[in-house]
């Protein structure tokens, strides 16, 4: 019998929760039937949604938690008062080895702070980063940080290079090409942190990655590099801009086609829309923690949340954290 993947879910985090959480679980059953969900949230509301979706009792249990961490709360406030919240309890279950992985669509800053309070970081890593796969013309990029660390110094960016390279090698088993996201490709451009990081990486003699210099935002999806490094402020803006652009294109393209042309281009348009659909790439992992914590986009719908569940399943079954540790290196400064 196949071993269950135990996923601790903050069922109250994010927009339209827990409705989208339970619907997302239901959708995810089509792809993965070996998941077991430990749901943290208001039991009476959860049971209503579970009844609507007819979830089988064998795939879940509910831990009644009445407190919720709101998106508008600061991470510090959330950490101080949130010990009885659905987010805190879900991460705590991971710490206590009752779950294999934790998933939340809630407050990103709070999720990071609480995760760092309850879980150990990998030795040598000062700040975990939010990393995700980003589609390009050839395959996939690993991009980090996508919003966990607003301000970063060169040590943080070097850690991100090490973690991003390790993540890419764990996923694709190739030596990655690494680039720093910047406002230009010339060596003299960028702020002082980027310039210092560039010089260190330029002189790097490790064999775990190939440094490709700077990359500009309009070349992220070219597919010429594999790992893209940035601070969380810039990375989050880039991510949201890409998602917004993809949604804009797919919505307006359909409007611009008449019924006749739509009939003949339906399947091409459908494939194009699916490739651009940001929900397909929902689910980012906090790399740098000893245990896997996955962040789902707060505004995603049930389909997007289902994709983040599938990401959780793959992370656990592939022993991704152990593989990242295996490939992690220290970059000489």
Structure description:
This protein has eleven helices and eleven strands. It is α/β, with parallel strands linked by helices. The chain has an eleven-stranded mixed sheet with strand order 3-2-1-4-11-10-5-6-9-7-8, sandwiched between helices. Helix 1 (19-28) links the parallel strand 1 and strand 2 (35-41). It is globular. The model has no long low-confidence stretch (mean pLDDT 89).
Quick overview:
By secondary structure, the chain is of the alpha/beta class.
Ordered list of secondary-structure elements with their pairings:
Elements: E1 5-10, H1 19-28, E2 35-41, H2 43-53, E3 60-64, H3 75-81, H4 86-95, E4 101-104, H5 108-118, E5 129-135, E6 140-144, H6 154-172, E7 177-181, H7 192-202, E8 210-215, E9 227-229, H8 232-256, H9 259-276, E10 284-287, E11 293-295, H10 302-317, H11 320-327
Parallel strand pairs: 1-2, 1-4, 2-3, 4-11, 6-9, 7-8, 7-9
Antiparallel strand pairs: 5-6, 5-10, 10-11
Helix pairs in contact: 1-2, 1-10, 3-5, 4-5, 6-7, 6-11, 8-9
């Amino acid at each position: 019998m196949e071993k269950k993947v135990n996923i601790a879910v903050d069922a109250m985090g994010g927009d339209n929760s827990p409705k989208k959480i339970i619907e997302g679980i239901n959708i995810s059953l089509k792809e993965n039937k070996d998941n077991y969900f430990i749901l943290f949230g208001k039991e009476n509301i959860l049971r209503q949604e579970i009844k609507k979706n007819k979830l089988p009792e064998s795939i879940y249990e509910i831990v009644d938690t009445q407190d919720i961490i709101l998106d508008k709360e600061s991470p510090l406030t959330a950490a101080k008062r949130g010990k009885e919240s659905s987010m805190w309890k879900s991460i705590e279950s991971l710490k206590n080895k009752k779950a294999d992985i934790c998933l939340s669509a809630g407050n990103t800053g709070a999720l990071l702070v609480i995760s760092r309070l309850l879980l150990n970081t990998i030795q040598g890593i000062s700040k975990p980063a939010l990393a995700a796969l980003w589609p390009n013309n050839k395959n996939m990029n690993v991009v980090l940080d996508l919003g966990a660390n607003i301000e970063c110094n060169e040590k943080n960016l070097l850690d991100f290079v090490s973690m991003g390279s390790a993540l890419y090698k764990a996923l694709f088993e190739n030596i990655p090409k690494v680039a720093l996201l910047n406002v230009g490709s010339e060596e003299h451009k960028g702020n002082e942190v980027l310039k210092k990081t560039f010089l260190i990486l330029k002189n790097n003699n490790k064999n775990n990655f190939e440094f490709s210099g700077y990359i500009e935002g309009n070349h992220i999806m070219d597919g010429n590099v594999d790992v893209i490094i940035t601070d969380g402020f810039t990375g989050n803006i880039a991510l949201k801009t890409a998602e917004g652009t993809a949604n804009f294109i797919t919505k307006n393209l359909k409007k611009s086609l008449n019924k006749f042309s739509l009939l003949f281009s339906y399947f091409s348009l459908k494939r194009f829309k699916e490739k651009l659909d940001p929900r397909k790439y929902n689910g980012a992992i906090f790399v740098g923690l000893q245990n896997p914590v996955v962040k789902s986009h707060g505004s995603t719908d049930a389909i997007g949340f289902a994709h983040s569940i599938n990401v959780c399943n793959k992370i656990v079954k592939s022993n991704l954290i152990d593989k990242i540790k295996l490939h992690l290196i220290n970059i000489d400064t």
